[in-house]
Structure formats: structure tokens, C-alpha cells
Amino acid sequence: NAEQTYLNFHITILDRAVIVHRITSCTKFLNVMAVCTLSLHKLTIYIFGTPKNRCYVALFDYTSRTPEDLNFKTGDKLEVLDKSYDEWWMAKALSGRSMGKQGYIPSNYVVPMQSMESETWFFTDTKRTDAEKLLMLPANKHGAFLIRDSESQKGHYSLSVLDENTVKHYKIRSLDSGGFFISRRVTFESLSDLVKHYSNVDDGLCVRLRSPCEKTPPTLGLSYNTVDHWEIERSSVKLIKKLGAGQFGEVYRGLWNGTTPVAVKTLKQATPHYGINESTILLFKKEEKHIRSTAAVSFNQGAKRVASGRDAGATVILKIQVDMAAQIASGMAYLEMKNYIHRDLAARNVLVGENNTCKVADFGLARTENESVYEAKEGCKFPVKWTAPEAISLSQFTIKSDVWSFGILLYEIITYGKMPYPGMVNFQVVQELSAGYRMPCPMNCPPEFYEIMKECWKENASDRPTFETLQWKFEDFFDTDSTAYDDANNF
């Protein structure tokens, strides 16, 4: 039927080899759930199962947010019944506490069963630099590891291992016969066998493999029923704590539907159109480096924007600061590609989540760059200390004025949130900038970091780098030789 595939066939001779062969042939396309034999004179075998292309396994725990959602735990098996929505699928639990129940699940929380992605140690679409950042997170200890796709050789893999305070990388080479090896003295039929071997002995690696790198649940929307419905009931959002305020509204920590932590932006009554504009921008796509609005609430007294959010609180060190800069540049590169100008890029408008994940937010001043320049309306206010000189004097904004603001944001990052142009008020900043003044290199700021800041503050806007360039500058900030690999034969 629609939920389960059912096969049966008859065997007149009790030949064990034939029975095993028939059942084995079925397991190639079915996950067998039950086998029944009937009749003394004639053996009838009934095989119940779910088509393998519909079987998935959970990578993370998920607690339902609405009555229509399905609870599941890491490792639970699920049959996907409907993929009409990209982000939310209808599924049936095949194991676990919810076994037999149906409901919606976040699609990025599950992967096909028996696929490489289902292995706890395999990280798909993970760059070398990303692997290093993941393994250096506090949750991972000495010997933590992951296997990822090779960036340079398609179809090959790399092993990344945390060795005390450094991450070392090993090439996993493929044999013509289909096996794998790191050192030719020992080969393996599968990556699983390779992991098992090096989990028992280091055998030339810097350290014995101990535990897979921790995986962080990805960001997702509120629920399946907010995918195409962007206005939600006011009563479903509870404001808990005020986090900050700006010209156009205030930001709160909140709770949606009594289940989901969210960041809530309230917009002032005089500027409700900004909320609509902001949601329009953020409807682009599920990009990793910028936050999406997940729903909006309208009021007579004002408007709210609700976005998925998590608390931050990790100690910031240089590598994390550089990574933050890279993430923000990536988000802005996306807006750059879509011909949008943010016009209010600053640390106060970046949401920081678990594991210092940064997402560009608060698009209250953002505009489409239909032409190369956007001219602000008379009387429009903007944050002087973050605004490019040409925007201050001519009220003309381009993506390059956002680059200037990014340079100020870099100052905030490297100084742990200090106010730019310390000791100056706005009119002094305007005077000093017109005379060619630029903030000096902050204390303990690496010269290479400051050089990037100065590039963002070039007088001629066209001489400033693109956000795409800024992104790779920070992604490669610590790379001396990105092609270097460790050799297992050297240990």
C-alpha cells in the first residue's frame, strides 16, 4: 500500500539456499521489517519492508514545536512520505519512542540510511578551514576527528584530527580495487574499517582516533506551517528580555509557541514598511551566513520580526574573531551578489549563536541596488560612526559604503565591542574624516587584520575590496600552505 511495500513469493522445495537468495535479493531495495512462513506443504514467504530510497536516519534530536511535528532522537529510523516542502517533510517513525507515528520533520536533521552522511564521523561539504574550526570547538577533545570530501581531488577523502591545540590532516587515498589507505602498509575495504583500525591504534597517525567531531544541529525555520505564511499570531510570541535598541526598533529574546527560542525585533509605528522590506530581503534562501526572518507579526502599535536565534557566550580569541569576520563577509557577499545594500552594518546588527555562528541581521535600512547608487531621502538618519564619508556628505549609498561599515565592524570585533572613534562625538568624526583621518591600529590587533580594515576605509569607494574578496581574505587568514598534509609514515 501507500505506506509500506509488500512482497510475497512461493517456494515449493524447502531449499535453504533458495530461501536465503530470495530474501537477500529483496534487501537490495527494501529494508526488511518482517518475514513470515506459512503452510506445511508449501512455503510462502512474506516480506514486509520500506523502500530504501525512503528510509532515513536522524542525525540530531528533535523536539516537536507544534502538534503536527514528529519527535525523534539521534539514530531513529524514519520513512519519508512526502517531500512537498524543501525544509519540512512528512515522515513516519520506524523506530524509537514515536514508532508508528507520523508528523513533520526538519529535512536537514535526517540523511539517507546506510549513506556516508549517516556516519557520525563523516562531514559532507566541509572545507579544510571549516574542519579546523569545528574540531577546535571546546566540545571536542584530543583525538577528535572527522572525515570529509577532498577539496582538491573529487571522489577522494581527507581525515582531520585534533592533536592537542592543532588540527592535522591526512589524505585518504583510493585503491583501484575499491579500498582505501592512508599508509600503503595497511589498506581497508571501507572507510568504516579504516576508522575502526585507527581507533584501536594510531599506527602512524599523530594520535589514536577517539571520538567523532561534535555535530551542531543546523538552523531551521519555525515550523512547516510558517513556510508560506509569514504572518503569525501575536499571542504565539512571548517577549522575555530586551537585548538592545536602535533607531527603528528594539530587539528581544523571546519564545515562540512556548517551545522555540527566537530573536524578536519590534519596529516603531512610524516605520512599518521597513519590516516588510526586511522580510522581503530575507526571503532569499536558506543561506548559512545571514539570518532569515522566519515570521512576522503586525500590530496597530507596531510590528515584530521573529528570527531563529540562540544564546552566545563563548570566550572570544583571535581565531574566533577572524572566523566571525569571515562569516559576516560571506553574508554580505550574498547581499552583494543579490544587489542589495545593507546601510546599517554594525556589530549590533549581527546575531551570534551557538559555536559563535554569525548571521547578518537587522535590515531596517536595507535597499535594493537597482542602480549603482541609492540616495537617501531628505531627513533620513543614519549611524555616523559606521557610515562612509560619501554617504555622510552626499547621502549616496553603494555596496562599497557597506564595505566601509564592515571595516568599522572589524574594529568592534578586534576590540571586543569598543565604540569606534573613542572620545569623539559625531560632528568631530565628520570633520576628522574629511581631513583624511583613520582610526589607528587597536592594541593587540595583528597588522594583517588592520591592513584589511584600512583597505575598507579607502577614500575612493571603487578602490575598496568586494565582500567576496574580504571573505576569502579572512577564510585564508591563517593559511600558510593550504595544500599541506601530514604523512602517517613520518610518525
TrEMBL record:
The reaction(s) this protein catalyses: L-tyrosyl-[protein] + ATP = O-phospho-L-tyrosyl-[protein] + ADP + H(+)
Keyword Metal-binding: no
Domain spans labelled Protein kinase: 237-478
Domain SH3: 51-115
Any GO MF annotation of the entry: ATP binding
Gene3D superfamilies reported for this sequence: Phosphorylase Kinase, domain 1, SH2 domain, SH3 Domains, Transferase(Phosphotransferase) domain 1
UniProt xrefs under PROSITE patterns: PROTEIN_KINASE_ATP (PS00107), PROTEIN_KINASE_DOM (PS50011), PROTEIN_KINASE_TYR (PS00109), SH2 (PS50001), SH3 (PS50002)
Superkingdom assignment: Eukaryota
Keywords linked to the UniProt accession: ATP-binding, Kinase, Lipoprotein, Myristate, Nucleotide-binding, SH2 domain, SH3 domain, Transferase, Tyrosine-protein kinase
UniProt KW Transferase keyword: yes
UniProt EC number: 2.7.10.2
Signal peptide: none
SH2 domain segment(s): 121-213
Binding-site positions, ATP: K265
InterPro entries linked: Kinase-like_dom_sf (IPR011009), Non-receptor_tyrosine_kinases (IPR050198), Prot_kinase_dom (IPR000719), Protein_kinase_ATP_BS (IPR017441), Ser-Thr/Tyr_kinase_cat_dom (IPR001245), SH2 (IPR000980), SH2_dom_sf (IPR036860), SH3-like_dom_sf (IPR036028)
Family: Belongs to the protein kinase superfamily. Tyr protein kinase family.
Record-given protein name: Tyrosine-protein kinase
